[in-house]
Structures are given as structure tokens and as C-alpha cells.
Design a protein that fits this description.
The chain has 14 helices and 17 strands. By secondary structure, the chain is of the alpha/beta class. Strand 11 and strand 12 form a beta hairpin. The chain starts with 5 loop residues before the first strand and ends with a strand. The model has no long low-confidence stretch (mean pLDDT 93).
Length: 440
């Protein structure tokens, strides 16, 4: 072993862990020229040591016990790729206690327990790097935290879950239902056997929580993030959106307002001319609006072994560069100095203003649309467009579809209007709402 080598312990040998080994092997000379030190993975933990892997583990001591990796006196840096909260949290804190920097791709851990982890790291003077926790290969954390540090960031909006984006893209392209496309995504490995975190907005909310903290200098606030999934999006909604000049995407949005910070994940209609509206498949994209730099779009692979490994190794190079740096002069974990985090509140969803797409089934008879529009008008909600699609079989008792686009209005007002519309005798369905985001 070279005397100046940085010795790395790897927790997790799955898709990303194998990608890290492959990249370090393939690009060893290039990476070490950037880091200024030699880098060696000396030990790694995996659940199944007999499992076939598409990377070479020659020269790496393998174990099923992650504590052996963390406690190894020859390990200088820990890379945590296990995912989940426990035992990942306990292992990360244990490594920090021993003065070992940690690199992690664990957005769940950072979003829920990042404050505790960063406080422990600051007390020990070590780094915790987490670029790979958000948007895979896209260097979004470094860009917001460092490259845009001379800006006041107004908002961040992103497609930050590849599974949900794949599903919506395939539904639009193939005209199939959510359930059909989800089954395909699971078969292709884009969705887990239990896809709930991906389709209900939880995964995106983890990532958005991290981005918002870095962008606005606020504490990590996952529990206050509004989350809405894509399971109720239908092929009809997608057709409506296209005919109206929009595409439906599952967005994470963090916006600074006079009253506080909006922090929300939900489906949204985006004008088809916006670049982010044309991000398809499993790809990710994030738009950052800053006062001096203007709008920036970051696009790339948001998941997968090699793309995520790219971000992990970039963090490893950064960590190695800072090993000899005074801890108080390093880039803060959440961009702002720990004592300078803002107490801006997270706005409840009722206080957020958005334009809306509304869809309902109503009897095809005179006066129904007038009643609906009267309710909206009484609640101060302006209508941009209204369409009633004639049923192929006439009014068969199930009603005909009615679509409305509204101008921006506080969520609470729209909630009240929807309740009143749904009790009309001639309205035969619940009112479906999808928010509209122009991202201008």
C-alpha cells in the first residue's frame, strides 16, 4: 500500500457500490491527478459475499459486517451506500465519532437526520459529502452551494425522481394507464417492487428538502413538505394537457416568498415550450432561478450505478482535497454557516398560490357550466379556459368531461370552491385538480 494513499471503506456493494469500484478502476489515473492523492478501496461490506458482481473486488477485503469496515483502523474515509435510516445512521455517526469523513448517497438519511449528522461532523471537524443524494450524476448541490453563492435564489423546480418521470413519459407516448406503465417500469427495473416512495412523492420530497435548505439557508424541513403523487393521473389528463399546450410532470418546487418558503411535490402542467417539460424517461432536470445568474437548467441521469457513482467519486475527490484544510474554512454542509440559518417558515399548502387545471364529470344539460363558473367567481377565481368534451355515446348517465383552467389563486380558496362544486346535483364526480406551473 502506497504511504500517501487514502484508504476507503465501502458500505454497500449494490448497483452504486459496484459502479464506484468500476469507475475508480477505469479512471484511476485521472481521478488521482485531480485528488492529488492515491485512492484505494481496502474493504467493503455486502449482504451476500457469493453474489456475482460486474466489478473486480480483487485486493478488497469483503465482509458482511458493516461495523468491521467503519472500525477498521486502516480506513480513512467511509462511503455509505446502504440506503435507509438504520443501520446507516448509526454507522455514519460512528464513523464521524472516529474522525472519518463520510460520503453518502442516502437522501432519506440526510433529509430526516441531516441536522444531527452535520452537527456531529462539525464537532469532530470532518466532512460529510452528499452530492449523490440528489439527482444522481447532476452536480446540483455543488452548483447551488458554491457556483451560485453570489446570488439570491428565488426558486428551484425539478424533475428529481426518474421512476415517476418514466411513467408519465410512457403514458403520454403510448396512451396507456398508470397501472400498465408502472408494471412495465417494475419489470424493467426502473421501479421497485414497492414503488410507493417514487410514485407518492416521498423520494422527491427527500431531495427537495435538501435542495431548499441549500438554496435558502433554512433548516432541513422534510416533515413540512407537501407531497402528492402521480397515481391518479390518467391518460385523459395527459391528452387534455397536450391539447392545451402543456405536459404533465411530477415536480418538486421550492420557492421563496414574502410569507415564507413554499416546499411542495405534486404533478403539474408545464407549458410545452419550457425545456424542463421536454425531459423524458428516467432523466432528471433541475431549474434554478437566481437574481444575478438568471435561470439555469441542469439535466442528466438521475439514477443508476455509473451516474450515481460519478457523484460519489466527485465527493471523494473533494473530501480528499480538504483533509488538510482547516475545518472552519471548508464549504459549509448546507451552504450557509451553521449559525446563520434562517428562521423563514415553510408555508402550509393552503397559503400557496397556483393556477389550476380542473376536471370533472357533469350532466350534459343547460345551466351546469353556469353553476360551476358562478361558484368559482364567487370565490374570486378567474377562469382562463373552459372545455366540455361531448361524450361519444351522449349523456349515458356517467356525464361528460368538463375541463377548466384557472388563473393563480390561494389553495384555500380553491379548496372551498371544489367542495361547493362537488355537492352540485349535476356534478357526478369528484373534482380532479392538477396545479399549473409556468416556471417563468
Amino acid at each position: 500500500m502506497e504511504t500517501n494513499a487514502i484508504r476507503v471503506g465501502l458500505l454497500g456493494l449494490g448497483c452504486v457500490g459496484s459502479g464506484v469500484i468500476r469507475a475508480l478502476t477505469r479512471n484511476q489515473e485521472e481521478i488521482e491527478r485531480r485528488a492529488g492523492r492515491q485512492l484505494r478501496i481496502v474493504c467493503a461490506c455486502a449482504r451476500d459475499l457469493e453474489k456475482s458482481r460486474d466489478c473486480s473486488t480483487e485486493g478488497i477485503r469483503l465482509t458482511t459486517n458493516p461495523h468491521e469496515v467503519v472500525d477498521d483502523s486502516e480506513v480513512d474515509v467511509i462511503i455509505e451506500l446502504m440506503g435507509g435510516i438504520e443501520p446507516a445512521k448509526e454507522l455514519v455517526l460512528r464513523a464521524i465519532e472516529q474522525g472519518k469523513p463520510v460520503i453518502t448517497a442516502n437522501k432519506h438519511l440526510i433529509a430526516l437526520h441531516g441536522s444531527e449528522v452535520f452537527a456531529a461532523a462539525e464537532s469532530q471537524g470532518v466532512n460529510v459529502a452528499f452530492e449523490a443524494a440528489v439527482a444522481g450524476s447532476i452536480p446540483i448541490i455543488k452548483n447551488i452551494r458554491e457556483s451560485l453563492s453570489g446570488n439570491r435564489i428565488t426558486w428551484v423546480a425539478g424533475i428529481i425522481n426518474g421512476t415517476g418521470n418514466y411513467i408519465l413519459s410512457a403514458m403520454e407516448k403510448e396512451g396507456r394507464s398508470f397501472e400498465e406503465v408502472l408494471a412495465d417500469a417494475q419489470r424493467l427495473g426502473y421501479a421497485e417492487a414497492d414503488p410507493s416512495f417514487d410514485v407518492d412523492g416521498t423520494d422527491a420530497a427527500h431531495k427537495l428538502t435538501i435542495l431548499a435548505s441549500i438554496a435558502f439557508g433554512i433548516p432541513l424541513s422534510f416533515e413540512q413538505a407537501y407531497r402528492e403523487g402521480i397515481e391518479n393521473i390518467s391518460a385523459d389528463n395527459i391528452v387534455d394537457a397536450r391539447e392545451l399546450g402543456y405536459r404533465i410532470k411530477h415536480l418538486g418546487i421550492a420557492r421563496r416568498t414574502e410569507g415564507g418558503i413554499e416546499l411542495r411535490v405534486h404533478p403539474a402542467l408545464i407549458p410545452h415550450r419550457r425545456l424542463i417539460a421536454n425531459v423524458d424517461g428516467v432523466m432528471n432536470a433541475v431549474v434554478v432561478q437566481a437574481d444575478a445568474a438568471g435561470a439555469h437548467l441542469y439535466y442528466g441521469a438521475g439514477a443508476g450505478g455509473d451516474p450515481t457513482a460519478s457523484a460519489v467519486i466527485a465527493d471523494l475527490v473533494d473530501v480528499v482535497r480538504t483533509l488538510t484544510t482547516d475545518a472552519e474554512n471548508r464549504v459549509p454542509h448546507l451552504a450557509y454557516q451553521p449559525h446563520a440559518l434562517s428562521d423563514l417558515p415553510i408555508l402550509p399548502i393552503d397559503d400557496v398560490e397556483t393556477a389550476c387545471y380542473l376536471k370533472l364529470q357533469a350532466r350534459d344539460r343547460p345551466g351546469v357550466l353556469a353553476a360551476v363558473t358562478r361558484i368559482l367567481g364567487d370565490r374570486g377565481i378567474s377562469i382562463e379556459a373552459i372545455r366540455q368534451r361531448q361524450s361519444m355515446n351522449g349523456d349515458s348517465g356517467e356525464g361528460v368531461p368538463v375541463t377548466l383552467l384557472t388563473h393563480a389563486v390561494p389553495e384555500a380558496q380553491m379548496n372551498q370552491a371544489i367542495v361547493e362544486i362537488e355537492v352540485l346535483e349535476d356534478v357526478l364526480s369528484s373534482v380532479q385538480r392538477i396545479r399549473i406551473e409556468t416556471l417563468g
